[in-house]
Amino acid sequence: MTNKMKIPVAILGATGSVGQKFVELLTNHPWFEIKELCASDKSAGKKYIDAVDWFLSSPLDDRVGEIIVQKCERVLESKVVFSGLDSSVAGKIETEFAKAGYKVISNSKNHRMDEDVPLLIPEVNPDHLDLIKKQKYGGGCIVTNPNCSVIGLVLALKPLLDNFGLEAVNVVTMQAVSGAGHPSVVNLDIEDNVIPLIKGEEPKVEIEPLKILGKLNKKKVSFINFKISAQCNRVNVTDGHTECVQVKLKKKTSVEKIKKAWQEYSSEPQKLKLPSAPLKPIHFSNEESFPQPKHHRNNDKGMAVSVGRLRNDSIFDYRFVIMSHNTVRGAAGGAILCAELMKAKGII
Ligand code: NAP
Question: Each residue of 98-145: pLDDT tens digit?
């Protein structure tokens, strides 16, 4: 696609941790072009390069750095809007944009559990995009990306559900500091530490997978019925959430069959060859100490979930460890993949 044919997009919350990742991943995107950047009043009116505390290792694109940051007002030319807004303001602003005809793809928690809003992982529940038809926003819509720990978890669970059924899941997360946003990270007492609390996180990890894995019926999604227990911890890792998972399955199976289910797993984004889709959504390895955030978070453009240490469990049936990039697959990259699926389906 030439630049003229690219779809202009805006980023709300462009200066934040997720916002910066959006900027990085959308710079040179084959289908989308960053046209507008928005943030709070404190940043509005400044060039992006002056408003942002750019902390990514890749350099900020010169053209994007010169864009003047705007307030989050509905005067944007771009009709596709990615949101990395703080959840204290995201709900209202996203609703207003959708009502004004914008297609909003959000990372924030505010609309995730709305009955008419897809909570989308393009590999897992692409059919849930049909919920948009139930929305009352006229030409606009809201699509949400799940919580950053949930995306990796559900990608790993989906082949288990399809092949063996799920009865119960226990998960302990070790979440990277970039998940705490910026600049709050610097205030965290994380050096030489593990913080056994991420406010509001455990209920999200326990409920969101049940909607994502649920069945879309005529009116809404019927949540799947199994129990999840989650304990969430903040650890001193820059990027990449690691999760220790135990599962109880409905059908008897074997370690070998589970590995095969993961290795063979592929879905609609792979079939459609969406630009941000990982070649393989699940990277399984038999390596003894796989996966590790430092070494594996960028696997397959940071869009795959790395899975390892599969073994029998003495209380549940099996246990394993997963790791996925929280600001790529778990946030900006995941949301961009949602937008690519929407484009492939003619929604944008
Ligand atoms: P963050 O670093 O704190 O960034 C928040 C953004 O919101 C900034 O651009 C900020 O702009 C903007 N903002 C704050 N108040 C505003 C207001 N009143 N009006 C307009 N803009 C305002 O947070 P983050 O980590 O990027 O997270 C953003 C959202 O994504 C959150 O809802 C979070 O829960 C979710 N999320 C985060 C992750 C992750 O790994 N970090 C993963 C998944 C989902 P200024 O710079 O101008 O203040």
Answer: 999 999 999 999 999 999 999 999 999 999 999 999 999 988 999 999
Class of domain 148-325: alpha beta
pLDDT for residue 182: 65
How far apart (Å, rounded) are the C-alpha atoms in residues 77 and 95? 17
Residues paired with 33 in a beta bridge: 8
Residues in the chain: 348
Residues labelled catalytic? 148, 241
- As a whole number of angstroms, the distance between CA 225 and CA 185 comes to 36
Q: Domain ranges for the chain, please list them.
A: 3-147+332-344, 148-325
What tens digit of pLDDT does each residue of 56-99 get? Answer: 989 999 999 999 999 999 999 999 999 999 999 999 999 999 99
Q: Distance from first CA to last CA of the chain, Å, rounded?
A: 15
* Ligand 1 pocket: which of 86, 154, 201 to mutate (most atoms within 8 A of CB): 86
Ligand 1 centroid, distance to 185 Cα (angstroms)? 12
CATH superfamily for domain 3-147+332-344: NAD(P)-binding Rossmann-like Domain (3.40.50.720)
| Confidence class for position 190, pLDDT limits 50, 70, 90 | confident
Cβ count near 51 (within 10 Å): 21
